[in-house]
């Protein structure tokens, strides 16, 4: 690969730090950029400090250690508008959001690419564990380390973004990354993994929603037959598949089977009522193929930690598959509207979209 000027997004973690070092070792002119995404008074309360002042401090220290330039850019307003507001709005609508995908698309590979051009750089890089393959189009393949593969979070990237993106860690295992960081004496070598949602300062997202102005608006908890089982403080505080915190006893394990925002209801059922044979996925973006012209077999991941299920994808429009029906080979548990469904063929990321509907017949008529 030709040597070039590369802007790398540095989060202050071990992955982006080693990725920056690898690029420099390959002879590139490397510029580190850390985005300030969240007000300091909020991030100072965070458990992992993955987006806060400690992250910026760690990134700056690593940049000095490996001998590259480093800048901090303030993107708090954009982060609020494009990620936080989306996060809250999705919960209000009875969906479970995936803010990491939006943050990647809009900021890490959107804003960062814009900043790189201002700095005269040819491309950007991140510490994601994924592989970009360049052929007739830009394709993404899973990272070599199956435990760290992050291709799921990259399905919404455009061909333009991918054409200017490098993933220096795609062929590496996480253990190799830590070994390199320790050998180099990087201060982040033993730093813990960041939480999936960096801006939620505890492992419970509900206090964050309250801080964002989501107040109580009580409604009924009903079973799939429409019987009232209890009351809830707001559908935003529940997600499909949830078992604990329902606030009533039923004599058997009960789970959130669906959310009914039109009537402000939480629908619950037994474990057998969580399974769905199909779902509809919208706003699809195709990466490994140009479009979906007809039915196609694929492996579908419906959550980032999901192992993947065999399914058939069926386009529902004449727009190349912007809306797709996913028919699972075996019924799938806790298919959650608002989450990303990502499609694979082997290790090739075909594309993905957002789960629009998976309620099936579980939402009863209002009594």
By CATH, the architecture of the largest domain is named 3-Layer(aba) Sandwich
Q: Give, in spatial order, the strands making up the sheet with the most strands.
A: 12-15-14-13-16-17
Q: Strand pairing plus helix content: what structural class?
A: alpha/beta
Overall shape? globular
Q: Give the total of domains.
A: 3
H/E series, N to C? Answer: EHEHHEHHEEEHEHHEEEEEEEEEE
Radius of gyration: 22 Å
Q: Averaging pLDDT over every residue, what do you get?
A: 91
CATH class of the largest domain: Alpha Beta
Task: Give a count of the beta strands, DSSP E runs of length 2 or more.
Answer: 17
**Helix-residue proportion:** 10-25%
Main sheet properties: 6 strands, antiparallel, barrel
DSSP helix count? 8
The percentage of residues in β strands lies in: 25-35%
CATH fold title of the largest domain = Rossmann fold
Intertermini distance: 65 Å
Q: Segments where pLDDT lies below 50 for 5+ residues?
A: 44-48
Write the CATH homologous superfamily of the largest domain. HUPs
What does this structure look like?
- The protein is an alpha/beta fold.
- The chain folds into three domains: 5-184, HUPs (Rossmann fold, 3-Layer(aba) Sandwich); 216-272, SH3 type barrels (Roll); 275-357, Translation factors (Elongation Factor Tu (Ef-tu), domain 3), CATH 2.40.30.10.
- The protein has helices at 14-25, 40-43, 53-66, 76-92, 99-118, 159-163, 174-184, 206-211; strands spanning 5-9, 29-36, 69-74, 123-125, 130-134, 138-142, 165-166, 219-223, 228-232, 255-260, 265-269, 275-286, 296-301, 309-315, 324-333, 340-345, 348-357.
- The strands form four sheets. A six-stranded antiparallel β-barrel has the order 12-15-14-13-16-17.
- The longest helix is centred in the N-terminal third of the chain and has 20 residues, at 99-118.
């Amino acid at each position: 690969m030709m040597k070039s000027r590369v802007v790398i997004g540095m989060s202050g973690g071990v992955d982006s730090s080693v990725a920056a070092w690898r690029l420099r070792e390959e002879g590139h002119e490397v510029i580190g950029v850390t985005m300030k995404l969240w007000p300091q008074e909020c991030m100072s309360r965070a458990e992992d400090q993955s987006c806060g002042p400690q992250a910026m401090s760690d990134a700056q220290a690593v940049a000095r250690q490996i001998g590259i330039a480093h800048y901090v850019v303030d993107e708090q307003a954009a982060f609020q508008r494009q990620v936080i507001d989306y996060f809250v709005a999705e919960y209000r609508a009875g969906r479970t959001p995936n803010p990491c995908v939006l943050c990647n698309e809009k900021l890490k590979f959107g804003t960062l690419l814009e900043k790189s051009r201002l700095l005269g750089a040819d491309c950007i890089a991140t510490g994601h564990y994924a592989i970009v393959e360049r052929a007739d189009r830009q394709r993404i393949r899973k990272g070599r380390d199956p435990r760290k593969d992050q291709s799921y979070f990259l399905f919404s990237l455009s061909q333009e973004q991918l054409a200017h993106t490098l993933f220096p860690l795609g062929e590496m295992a996480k253990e190799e990354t830590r070994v390199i960081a320790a050998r180099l004496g990087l201060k982040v070598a033993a730093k813990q993994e960041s939480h999936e949602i960096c801006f939620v300062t505890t492992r419970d997202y509900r206090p964050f929603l309250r801080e964002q102005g989501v107040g109580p608006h009580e409604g009924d908890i009903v079973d799939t037959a429409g019987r009232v089982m209890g009351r809830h403080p707001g559908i935003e505080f529940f997600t499909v598949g949830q078992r604990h915190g329902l606030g009533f006893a039923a004599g058997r394990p009960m789970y959130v089977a669906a959310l009914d925002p039109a009537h402000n209801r939480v629908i619950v059922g037994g474990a057998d009522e969580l399974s769905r044979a199909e779902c509809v996925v919208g706003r699809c973006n195709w990466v490994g193929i140009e479009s979906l012209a007809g039915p196609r077999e694929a492996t579908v991941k419906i959550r980032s930690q999901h192992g993947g299920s065999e399914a058939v994808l069926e386009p529902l429009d004449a727009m190349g598959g912007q809306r797709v029906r996913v028919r699972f080979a075996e019924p799938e548990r806790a298919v959650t509207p608002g989450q990303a469904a990502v499609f694979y063929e082997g290790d090739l990321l075909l594309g993905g979209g957002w789960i629009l509907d998976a309620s099936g017949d579980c939402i009863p008529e209002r009594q």
